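thought: fold this chain, then report.
action: predict
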Amino acid sequence: MNSDGTPECRPQVPRAGRPASTPRPTATFKEAAMAQNSTEQKFTFLFTWFDRTGDGYLTRDDFQQIGEVFAAVAPDESNKSALREAFMLWWDVLGEAAAPDAQGRIGRQQFITAMRSHIAADAKTVERLVTPIIDALMRALDTDKSGMLTADEYVRMYEALGIDPATSSAAFQRLDRNGSGTITHDEFRTAIEEFYLSTDTEAPGNWLLGSPLLRS
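observation:
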C-alpha cells in the first residue's frame, strides 16, 4: 500500500529462464526424430533389398547377385558390365566403411551406421556409387532415346528388380514432379540422390522403395 492508501503498482519482473513468449522447440525435436527414423526406415528397405539370401547379413556374394539382377534388365553387354562393376564398387566402399566380420559379413545395423556416417554423409561418394547405375539403367530402358521414362517403363523396371508394382507406381507419381506422365534422366538422378542424402520425408526420392514414415 502507498502512504495515501492506494494499492502499490509494482512492475512485473520476468522469471529467470526462457521468456514466456518464446515457444519451446518441441516441433524441432519431433522433426529431428522423424528424420532419424525415416533414414533408418529407408536404409532398412535398402538392406533387405540387397540381402539376396535373406540371412540378415550382406556379403560380397549378395552384391554380385544384386548386380546380376540389375544386369538382367539391360539388353546389351556393355550396360550389363557397367551394372555388375557398379555393385562391386558398392561392396568395396561399404566394406571399407563397415568393417565386415571374420566371415566377410555386414549386419543390418552396421550397414545403416555405415550409410549414415560414410556413404550418405558425402554427396561425392553417393555420386560415385550411384551415377553409373542410374546412367546404365537409363541407357538400357530409354529405347527410343527420348531421355525420359514413362510410368509403365518405370514400374516394369522396378518389378524386374524385385520391387512391388504398387510401391513403384506410388513412387512414380511423386517423382513426376510436373505431372507430365514421364520422368527425365535428371529427375531420376535427383530422386536417387534424395534417397541417399535427404532427410526430408516429403522429398519424392525418399519414397523410391516405400514410405519413409514409420508405421505406428
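thought: worth noting. Strands lie at 57-58, 106-107, 148-150, 182-184.
final: C-alpha cells above.
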